Amino acid sequence: MTRFSPSPIAVLDVGGTSIKGGVVRGTEVEHTPSVPTLANSSADVILGQLAKSANSALTRSGPGTVGLAIGFPGPFDLQAGAALIQGLHKFDSIYGLELRPELRTRTTVANLPIEFVRDNEAAGVGEAVEGAGRGVGRVLTITLGTGMGTCLTDQGMPVPKVGELSVERLARRETQWGSADDVLSARGLAGRLGVATTDLRDVIGEPASREIVQDHGRRVGAFLSPIVEELGADIVIIGGGLAAAFHLFGPALERALSPTPCVPAALGADGPLIGAAILAFPTPRR
């Protein structure tokens, strides 16, 4: 078990579209400006964006900073600090590149530790410990952003596998419409609506989008229904960029998953930052 560190932790939540940064002190989060990830750019450009966000968080965290925690999309080698993403429309240019030494040459991190965590697990732990899953035993958190992330927690700690089933790889499952990561994410919904992912929030609430958005909820529900049973989840939490539009697609999703409750994430952008801080720098309870 862990408790929250009272000392500041600089944190990045790296997504395919943007990098959200901040400082976590206990359960309090202070955000720094987000920057575009530019995930389809060259390695030097992506590293520059990571360094820009990291420097902003490190400057804000100030003296006594424990370290830098970075939530990164998978697949990711946590020990080596290297992204292993290929063919997912993001981060191909930094495949296999060890990020710690690259960041040390570009940031003010000095000799502080840099720890990586999986972004889906950061989001899941944050919501399970302090958000919509607080007090619930087995929580399945689904992040619908540029891609789709999946995390199962039990009593606030990640459960990577159930039997032979890898929770992280659930988003790679095929559906009748294509790979879950491609078609059920915000990127997938944007494609159905004929807009760029960055423009999705501008059209998702329009009357002309209503039928497709509601059907998106039905599709996510059809995909998750057997998974909820496989994993024995007590609750499903929807996070990521699409969570802000839960009122538009959520009712159809809730009907598909009933009687298992399905709710939007409660912490918003705070959740992944809190979860990353917990996972990267756990503090034992006394």
Outline:
It is built from nine helices and 18 strands. The protein has helices at 43-61, 99-104, 119-130, 180-183, 186-193, 200-203, 210-231, 246-257, 270-280, and strands at residues 2-3, 9-14, 18-25, 28-36, 68-72, 76-77, 82-83, 114-118, 138-144, 148-154, 157-158, 161-162, 165-166, 174-175, 178-179, 235-239, 262-264, 283-284.
User: Helical region count?
Assistant: 9
Biggest sheet strand order reads 4-3-2-5-8
CATH structural class of the largest domain:
Alpha Beta
By CATH, the topology of the largest domain is: Nucleotidyltransferase, domain 5
Give the helices and strands, then pairings.
Elements: E1 2-3, E2 9-14, E3 18-25, E4 28-36, H1 43-61, E5 68-72, E6 76-77, E7 82-83, H2 99-104, E8 114-118, H3 119-130, E9 138-144, E10 148-154, E11 157-158, E12 161-162, E13 165-166, E14 174-175, E15 178-179, H4 180-183, H5 186-193, H6 200-203, H7 210-231, E16 235-239, H8 246-257, E17 262-264, H9 270-280, E18 283-284
Parallel strand pairs: 2-5, 5-8, 9-16, 16-17
Antiparallel strand pairs: 1-18, 2-3, 3-4, 6-7, 9-10, 10-11, 12-13, 14-15
Helix pairs in contact: 3-9, 7-8
